[in-house]
Design goal:
The structure holds 2 protein chains of 2 kinds. Chain A is α+β, with helices and mostly antiparallel strands. Chain A has helices at about 10-25, 40-45, 65-70, 90-95, 105-115, 115-125, 140-150, 175-190, 250-265, 295-305, 310-315, 395-410, 420-425, 430, 440-445, 455-470, and strands spanning about 5, 25-35, 45-50, 75-80, 100, 135, 155-160, 170, 195-200, 205-215, 220-235, 235-240, 270-280, 285-290, 335-340, 340-345, 350, 355, 355-360, 365-370, 375-380, 385-395, 410-415. In chain A, helix 5 (about 105-115) crosses helix 6 and helix 12 runs antiparallel to helix 13 (about 420-425). Chain B is about 0% helix and about 60% strand. Chain B starts with a strand and ends with a strand. The relative contact order of chain B is 0.13. By secondary structure, chain B is mainly β.
């Protein structure tokens, strides 16, 4: 095993990877942008290296700076997490060139799967169904219009290099295609440094189901069941669960076999996820393969009882896994909700602000992967994902109830989040019935708002907070953030 | 201590009455008295018919964040009359719905625009948002350039509607 590993990421995923390194007794190094130097992930590692200014391109996306940090601190390997450099084959190659182990798949597999256009071609050749689409980056608008007409509207525009919903647009009619392609391309350029976009047929009422695959260092390729990720906003997942209420044993086997085949087709190694769209009739189409640890990996971990990061480390070090994949038995049900800095009552727009108070519940069957700390500022430079709350239960119903009560008892004050929205979502009858598709929020949560009126206790509590800050000069109310000049209440006009 | 606090359009006068009692009076003049106990570390206990329940409240500038019975409320401290607090936002003002960076300015001062035209593009957390004209008119104020950082609610465009 490695003696020291650098985690090239921030937020909850950096903290989560660091926890496995600590669990295994491996020394850890975090990297941070300047404003993140006192963030939870930076404080959680044995040492932290500051990369550069806030902007991701000067810090977390700066390949040279990350490799320099790893070499200077004496690391042997680099874990990229998800997002940032995790699917950047040039980074994987640069690591190897610098004598570092990249904890991820071989660069060749990343290159093929990292380009949605190339991966579709490989999948078609190996007999896995793909959604009909158009993929010619060099084509002019006329050829694109003709292709879209042939496929039939609506079409979905996507970034070739990306994930996480960035750069995606649904186009319902021909006259909107050109502007959607341009906007998506700009977004993709800004998020991934590559503006290549393509489009495919938009499948209506689709379910988004993915298979966790793993290829160990000894050449075994296996899958760890599916994750249901149909509940999305802006094509970005907000709730994931394992197993899917919509997948039976036969479909699981068919999808699992196809996913393993996809991994084998590119000589994959380590943890990966094969995403499928499943239509109303149970037909599934290959969407893409994510060649990294997935945001929602904890639901698989809780149901299968494995630590995927630990398995990644063993594989990257060339060691066998410390469990027998053939003996894995899935148990019960796990559900994850993503806690975002966003306003669900206002188009899910990103929010920023200080974390004034933070209290997570701690109870059986509950896991919280968080990058937050009280007193810290949530900045606009990075992804709005703050934390994930994952509940396990012997049944879906118990897991769901646990999650609801845990959300109810979470205190996160100082910036607008989707916590109350998630709690309401988990009590929608269609959710409880497992009737899911990717249009779920539009169908079941339109026009959601926070409570219209506050009860008198809320006003009384607010007054207490005001009197506490006045009596103590801010110590009990808002540590380290209040200044005397912010107590505008005591200011009067001079006239 | 007596303060005016608002939540959405609901405005209440809230006052301490001694021995942990707080009176909450709504705009119709109806008063409810709430009994509070033990303030430790920003958590407060509120007497309810079912016993004491814990609530959380914390202030940041003139906003007070409250967590009560599994719901979050954002209250504002009201101060004086609106007239003493600077120019009021007028109906032609388009503000940024989120904090972020202005990455594109597609119009100039004096430009005539049609309803639905994209005026600016704001980016935050890798998401781009087009700011569109809600009605046809002439651009009269454009305080930001490409690359500027803007806060939520900050003025982006002043649009004078055409007749």
């Amino acid at each position: 095993m490695f003696s020291k590993v650098l985690v090239a990421n921030r937020g909850e995923i950096a903290v989560r990877i660091l926890s496995t390194l600590q669990d295994m007794g491996v020394s850890s190094v975090a990297v941070a942008s300047e404003p993140d130097a006192d963030a939870l992930h930076a404080l959680s590692a044995d040492a932290c290296w500051t990369l550069g200014p806030a902007s991701a391109s000067e810090s977390y996306l700066n390949i040279e700076a990350v490799i320099h940090a790893a070499k200077e601190t004496g690391c042997e390997a680099v874990h990229p997490g998800y997002g940032f450099l995790s699917e950047n084959a040039a980074f994987a190659e640069a690591c190897i060139e610098a004598g570092l182990v990249f904890i991820g798949p071989p660069a060749r597999a990343m290159k093929i799967m990292g380009s949605k256009t190339r991966s579709r071609g490989v999948m078609e050749e190996s007999g896995v169904a793909v959604v009909p689409g158009f993929q010619d980056p060099g084509a002019g608008i006329k050829a694109q219009m003709a292709a879209a007409k042939k496929i039939g509207y609506p079409v979905l525009v996507k970034a070739a290099a990306g994930g996480g919903g960035k750069g995606m647009r649904v186009v319902k009619q021909a006259q909107d295609l050109e502007s959607a392609l341009n906007m998506a391309s700009q977004e993709a350029k800004s998020a991934f440094g590559d503006g290549t976009v393509y489009f495919e047929k938009y499948i209506e009422e689709p379910r988004h189901i993915e298979i966790q695959v793993f290829a160990d260092a000894q050449g075994h390729v296996f899958h760890l069941g599916e994750r249901e990720c149909s509940i999305q906003r802006r094509h970005q997942k907000i709730i994931e669960e394992c197993p899917s209420p919509l997948v039976d044993e036969a479909l699981r086997k068919r999808m699992g076999d196809a996913a393993v085949q996809a991994a084998q087709a590119v000589d994959y190694r380590g943890a990966g996820t094969v995403e499928f769209l499943v239509d109303k009739h149970g037909e599934f189409y290959f969407l893409e393969m994510n060649t990294r640890l997935q945001v929602e990996h904890p639901v698989t971990e809780m149901v299968y009882g494995v630590d995927l990061v630990r398995a990644q480390l063993h594989t990257a070090a060339g060691e066998p896994l410390d469990f027998d994949p053939l003996k894995l038995i899935p148990r019960g049900h796990a559900i994850e909700v993503r806690i975002y800095a966003e306003d669900p009552a206002n188009g899910f727009l990103p929010q920023a602000g200080p974390v004034l108070r933070l209290k997570w519940p701690n109870r059986p069957g509950l896991r919280i992967d968080s990058g937050l700390m009280e007193g810290h500022q949530v900045e606009v430079h990075y992804d709005p994902l703050l934390a994930k709350m994952i509940a396990w239960g012997p049944s879906r119903k118990i897991a769901c109830g646990r999650l609801q009560s845990a959300l109810h008892d979470t205190v996160l004050l100082g910036l607008t989040t989707n916590i109350d929205f998630l709690k309401d979502l988990l009590s929608v009858p269609a959710w409880e019935a497992g009737a899911l598709n990717t249009n779920f929020l539009e169908e079941h949560m339109p026009g959601w708002t926070a409570c219209k009126e506050a009860p008198p206790q809320v006003f009384a509590l607010a007054l207490e907070a005001l009197s506490t800050t006045q009596r103590t000069g801010g110590a009990a109310g808002a540590p380290a953030i209040l200044s005397p000049f912010e107590d505008l209440d005591s200011w009067r006009p001079l006239s | 201590m007596e303060k005016q606090l608002s939540y959405n359009s609901q405005i209440c006068t809230v006052a301490t009455k001694g021995s942990g009692l707080v009176s909450v009076t709504d705009s119709q003049g109806e008063t409810v008295t709430v009994e509070m106990h033990n303030a430790i570390g920003g958590s407060y206990q509120v007497q309810t018919t079912g016993g004491r329940a814990t609530g959380e409240a914390v202030r940041h500038r003139n906003t007070i964040w409250v967590r009560w019975e599994g719901k979050t409320y954002t209250l504002e401290l009201e101060q004086g009359t609106a007239g003493s607090r600077g120019r009021k936002k007028s109906s032609g003002d388009l503000t940024s719905p989120m904090p972020g960076q202005v990455i594109k300015v597609l119009v100039e001062e004096g430009s005539s625009v049609q309803a639905g035209d994209t005026l600016l593009v704001v980016e935050a957390m890798k998401m781009q948002l087009e700011i569109k004209a809600p009605q046809s008119g002439v651009i009269q104020g454009l305080p930001h350039r490409e690359g500027d950082s803007v806060g939520a609610g900050e003025l982006l465009v002043h649009l004078k509607a055409s007749e």
